[in-house]
């Protein structure tokens, strides 16, 4: 019986029917790894953040998969406006980071990318509460990756959304 189960499991890895496998097996079977995906895995595992991310206190990501990323961010008091609301420019920095993380899930292994457009819509006043941030790929061509990010309070209330485009190019 063990031999049969083992051969069945081996025959199923790499197919779309991998719902009962651990996430690590699913990821290995369904995601072709690249420099960017390796970096996302390292960040998720707690690797050191780049100096600019540390300086701005943007934090890392919580989880990712092909075409999407999730992160949680807790605002620090020194990043709030005098009335206790969130500074919109800081939400823009978080949007740029989340959209870049999402682009990393699909960028080809032999390419890099840079933000060429970022738009933010503020829907509700943000206060000193944790934000759940999700970014997804909405379109992709050989030269452009388009993403959308949503910022929600823990109660699910949408407070902001962003769209952005990443220009895809060969390394310089």
Secondary structure elements and their pairing?
Layout: H1 2-12, H2 23-30, H3 35-44, H4 51-56, E1 63-65, E2 68-73, H5 88-104, E3 112-122, E4 131-140, E5 144-153, E6 158-169
Antiparallel strand pairs: 1-2, 2-4, 3-6, 4-5, 5-6
Structure description:
The protein is α+β, with helices and mostly antiparallel strands and 172 residues long. The chain has two domains: 1-30, no CATH class; 33-169, Roll (Thiol Ester Dehydrase, Chain A), CATH 3.10.129.10. Helix content is 30%, strand content 30%. The chain is built from five helices and six strands; from the N terminus they run ααααββαββββ. A six-stranded antiparallel sheet has the order 1-2-4-5-6-3, covered by helices on one side. A hairpin with a 2-residue loop joins strand 1 (63-65) and strand 2. The chain is globular, with a radius of gyration of 18 Å. The chain starts with a helix and ends with a strand.
């Amino acid at each position: 019986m063990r031999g049969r189960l083992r051969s069945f499991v081996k025959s199923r890895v790499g197919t779309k029917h991998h719902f009962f496998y651990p996430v690590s097996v699913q990821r290995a079977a369904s995601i072709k790894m690249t420099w960017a995906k390796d970096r996302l895995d390292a960040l998720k595992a707690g690797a050191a953040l780049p100096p600019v991310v540390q300086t701005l206190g943007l934090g890392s990501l919580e989880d990712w998969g092909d075409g999407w990323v999730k992160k949680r961010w807790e605002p620090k008091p020194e990043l709030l406006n005098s009335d206790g609301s969130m500074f919109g420019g800081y939400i823009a920095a978080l949007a740029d980071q989340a959209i870049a993380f999402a682009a990393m899930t699909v960028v080809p292994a032999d390419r890099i990318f840079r933000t060429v457009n970022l738009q933010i819509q503020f829907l509700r006043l943000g206060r000193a509460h944790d934000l759940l941030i999700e970014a997804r790929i909405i379109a992709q061509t050989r030269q452009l990756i388009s993403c959308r990010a949503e910022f929600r309070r823990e109660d699910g209330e949408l407070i902001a959304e962003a769209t952005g485009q990443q220009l895809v190019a060969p390394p310089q």
